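From the methods appendix. Each design record in this collection lists the discretized structure first, followed by the designed amino acid sequence. Records were kept in a plain field format so they could be parsed without special tools. The example shown here is representative of the layout used throughout.

RECORD:
C-ALPHA CELLS (120 positions):
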C-alpha cells in the first residue's frame, strides 16, 4: 500500500494536514500584518486630517456649524470645488433642518430631561 502511494505521488492525510496547518499559520500572520498596517494607515490619516483642518482653521477656511438635530459641531472646509454636505457627520441628519425625531432620540431626550429634573 505505502509503496503504491509513493509511486502515484498522492499526498498522505498527514501531509495534507501539515499543509493545512501551514496555510492557517500563514493566513494568521497575514491577518495580523494587515491589521497593524490598517491601524497605522488609519492613524496617519487621522493625523493628516487634524493637520489639514488645523491649517484651514488658521487660514479662516473653515465653517463651524452646530447641528440643529444633535447640537454637535460640524466642521466644513470652505474650499471651492469641494462639495458641501448638508448632513451632520455625527448624527447623519440635516445640519440646518430639524428632522423627524426617532424613537432613539426620544429615549435619549427623556433620559437627559429626567436627569435634569431629578432635583425637583
Ligand atoms: Zn447632528
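DESIGN:
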Amino acid at each position: 500500500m505505502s509503496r503504491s502511494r509513493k509511486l502515484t505521488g498522492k499526498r498522505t492525510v498527514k501531509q495534507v494536514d501539515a499543509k493545512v496547518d501551514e496555510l492557517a499559520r500563514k493566513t494568521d500572520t497575514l491577518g495580523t500584518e494587515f491589521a497593524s498596517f490598517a491601524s497605522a494607515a488609519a492613524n496617519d490619516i487621522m493625523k493628516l486630517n487634524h493637520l489639514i483642518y488645523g491649517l484651514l482653521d488658521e487660514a479662516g477656511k473653515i465653517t463651524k456649524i452646530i447641528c440643529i438635530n444633535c447640537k454637535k459641531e460640524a466642521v466644513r472646509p470652505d474650499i471651492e470645488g469641494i462639495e458641501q454636505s448638508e448632513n451632520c457627520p455625527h448624527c447623519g441628519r440635516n445640519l440646518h433642518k430639524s428632522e423627524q425625531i426617532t424613537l432613539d432620540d426620544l429615549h435619549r431626550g427623556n433620559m437627559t430631561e429626567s436627569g435634569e429634573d431629578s432635583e425637583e
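APPENDIX NOTE: The beta strands are 62-66, 73-77.
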